[in-house]
Amino acid sequence: MKKYRIILAGVAAMALMGSCSEERFDTTGEGAITLTTKINTDMTVVSRSLADDLAESTIIWISNDKGAIRKYNGASEIPTGEIPLLSGSYVAQVWAGDSVSASFEQRCFKGREAFTVSAGQTSRVEITAKLANVAASVVYDEGVDEVLRNYSMTVGHDRGELVFEGRDERRGYFMMPSTSDDLTYTLEGELNDGTPFVLQGTIADAKSHPATEYVLHVKYDAETPDLGGGVFTITVDETSIEIQDTIEIITAPIFSGYGFDFENPIRSKAGEVGRLTVYASSATEITALEMDSKLFEPIVDGNGVELFGMADTQRQKLIDAGINYTLNYDAEADNSLLQVNFEESLTNALLDGTHEIVFRAKDRDGRTSEVTLTIVISDNPVSIEPVNENEVYSNRATLRALVTKENVETIGFNYRKSGDADWTFVEGIAGSRTYAVGTPYYAVIENLEPGTDYEYVATDGTFATSEINKFTTELQAQLPNAGMEDWAEFRSGEDTKDVVHIAADASSMFWDSGNHGSATMGKSVTNKSADIKHSGNYSACLESQFVGLGGVVGKFAAGNLFVGQYLHTAGTDGVLGWGRPFNCRPTALKVWVKYEPAQVTEKKEAHADLAVGDMDRGVIYIALLDETTKADANYPGWPIVIKTASKEQQLFSPDDANVIAYGRHDFNEATAGSDMVEITIPIDYKKDIRPSNIAIVCSASVYGDYFAGGRGSKMYVDDFELVY
Fold it and tell me: What is the DSSP letter of 276?
């Protein structure tokens, strides 16, 4: 059986490292544990990327009778050494994977292990996460095809379902919700004479049997004497899901420094650096350690060395120059601790300037990690810090520096536009009341020009750093076709006929709508309007309506407009890709709107909190997103993928992990007057980082995703403007 190891634990505590990120208790009665976690899965092929995804989704809680006392999110947070705990009884619980109501691919794993900690002892705790889903698959006898066509089997519960089209041999996975104990199934098709056929059933108490597969056998008996004709039967076989692979949660090697961290440079005067020690620890065998630095050029005639593969002559040259290492690998426990020393003979000889050493460690399974050690040698009174891109906006920026010498009385920065001759001084704000050595300080410079290059130096009023740092302010970008002026009919994506687009041509598409789906029934839910507008020739009119034949066959469709692209129509359902590249940080969205709600006539889904007869409601919202794209093999590259089909429904939430900022305006009644009104939507940032994508959604019916709303609800929008 193949095994992947991803991380959780392993190596012994490294007392020499001098620090511990874990909260420490009163050491009276204290012991410790090391954690090892495994995931038992039914997958026969576990790719490296899938194994890594499972590692990062792993969550571990450690609890006692007083509640949770430790939580680790993702393998990278799990300590590789000992975890100190007071003596007593504990429970460790682990979750991994995706807890999706119904999926052909996504699985959820859970595990629980009780353990005891004894004073002065270190215990090894192994938690095994097992499949928490129940599964279902369908098998058909050959005789079924002789009498039934276009058949499918739907299996699910009240939170989700899967459709097995035809002889779909896949295994479907279900997370049983608190509201359902049973799985239900429905066989649908047509008999040879065209008569619709439906056969339903229930798998009772499936919730109590995780890691169980229910195989639905569909049979047709052509000769049934008691009934005088053929009969369909469905029998359900219950089997335990076999473990095909074991995944151990292990991280890439972890670097640490003795008395320093890699996030901050080591700053010192020449001749006063002292011995530096770097550790690399791993819960498996470390097989390679590379180092790159200009410091190595006069030692080994090159910038790079690989410690384990170098020739003895090179190794001796490093030792003579003041660089040595030791590697301890415990084969029984399968963990490693590598120690690299830079002796005073090397470090105290460093000249003024910035010196960097890049470390790359690789373990036996090919996982790698990299850090950079930065040493700054200077006798200057202040030292400049690199600019943080996330602290540079379109009209302001935060500059940072450090006091590096005694008796400094003034702190600040000189800055200017790149190419200008004159500097502007701005006083710094210190991180403490005194300007002692090591005190960080900063300044926020404002009234900058968007999209402009600037440079700055740190100063104590008389001295200025020779190192000049640079930054570029963000643009104050606006949205393409923000005035809703460009419209054209053409085909894009999967269109089989011309569709109304909010664009001049396919190459300029930024906005899109549900017209691609409604066009199959000869309708457009979003179109230009020359009658109601704020400026220019047109606005966009979003009209909710029933899209179908004769008001019976079809579905309700909300008038909508969004930043992105309509990707696919499946029957009467759509798949949408939301978001376009965008890397600025506006503070609000302005838009001119006229909203005319109608009474709710459609209510297909229980989730919509509108009753038939209520007045419809509209919505506009904006989201700024990070670089994460939806991991969907069928629709790669989109930050948000929307699927409206109830059987595989996938909707947007402002709480999604890739949402940096969000703003929303709800229209609970008609807008005032007969003209358009301007609304402002503040954008609330939960992560103050530069986005990679922007999504804007407008809907004349707030519950259009659930096919609920009022026929005739209209929203006119025009002149979108981002505020900075």
Answer: E
d(CA 105, CA 108): 10
The top-scoring range by mean pLDDT among 29-43, 459-473, 546-560 is 459-473
Position 4 scores a pLDDT of 33
Query: The tokens of 239 are what?
Result: 């089997």
Tokens matching residue 17? 């490292």
SS3 419: coil
Q: Report the C-alpha gap between 666 and 673 in whole angstroms.
A: 18
Residues ≥6 apart with Cβ < 8 Å to 275: 341, 342, 343, 344, 347
Name the CA dihedral angle for 525, 531, 537, 540, rounded to a multiple of 10 degrees: -20
Question: CA 640 to CA 424: how far, in whole Å?
Answer: 44
Q: Hey, is 154 helix, strand or coil?
A: strand
Give the global pTM. Answer: 0.62
pLDDT band at 13 (very low <50, low <70, confident <90, very high): very low
Region 677-698 average pLDDT: 96
- What pLDDT is attached to residue 23? 33
Residues 6+ positions from 576 with CB-CB distance below 8 Å: 512, 514, 562, 564, 565, 566, 567, 641, 642, 644
Here the tokens at position 75 are 């393998």
Is the per-residue pLDDT at 8 higher than 50? Answer: no
Mean pLDDT across 220-245: 80
Residue whose token pair is 């997370």:
175
Question: What is the per-residue pLDDT across 33-66, written as a single tens digit (0 to 9) for each?
Answer: 888 888 999 988 787 778 878 888 899 999 998 8
253-289, pLDDT tens digit by residue?
889 999 998 988 898 889 999 999 999 988 789 999 9
Is residue 511 a contact partner of residue 539, using CB atoms and an 8 Å limit? Answer: no
CA–CA distance, 709 with 617 (Å, rounded to integer): 8
Beta-carbon-side half-sphere exposure of residue 570 (alpha carbons within 13 Å): 13
Q: For 330-385, what is each residue's pLDDT tens digit?
A: 888 778 999 999 999 999 999 988 899 999 999 998 888 999 999 989 888 999 99
Task: Identify the band that residue 9 occupies on the pLDDT scale cut at 50, 70 and 90.
Answer: very low
From CA 553, how far away is CA 448, in angstroms rounded?
Answer: 58
Q: Does residue 211 sit in helix, strand or coil?
A: coil
Which residue from 711, 703, 715 is spatially nearest to 596, judged by alpha carbons? 715
Please answer whether residues 78 and 61 qualify as being in contact, where contact means their C-beta atoms are separated by less than 8 angstroms: no
**Residues near 100 by Cβ (< 8 Å), separated by ≥ 6?**
106, 108, 160, 173, 175
Residues facing residue 665 across a β-bridge: 620
Beta-bridge partner residues of 527 = 541
Structure tokens at 392: 């540079």
Note the pLDDT of residue 160.
Answer: 85
Sheet of 134-140: strand order equals: 102-103, 172-174, 134-140, 212-221, 231-240
Query: What is the spatial distance between Cα 512 and Cα 44, in angstroms, rounded to a whole number?
Result: 41
Distances, alpha carbon 325 to alpha carbons 168, 252, 265, 339, 362, in Å:
57, 20, 22, 5, 16
Nearest to 703 by CA among 612, 567, 591, 570: 612
From residue 605, how far is each of 71, 241, 572, 638 by CA, in Å? 37, 34, 15, 26
Compute the distance between CA of residue 565 and CA of residue 512 in angstroms, rounded to an integer: 5
Q: Are 415 and 472 in contact (CB under 8 A)?
A: no
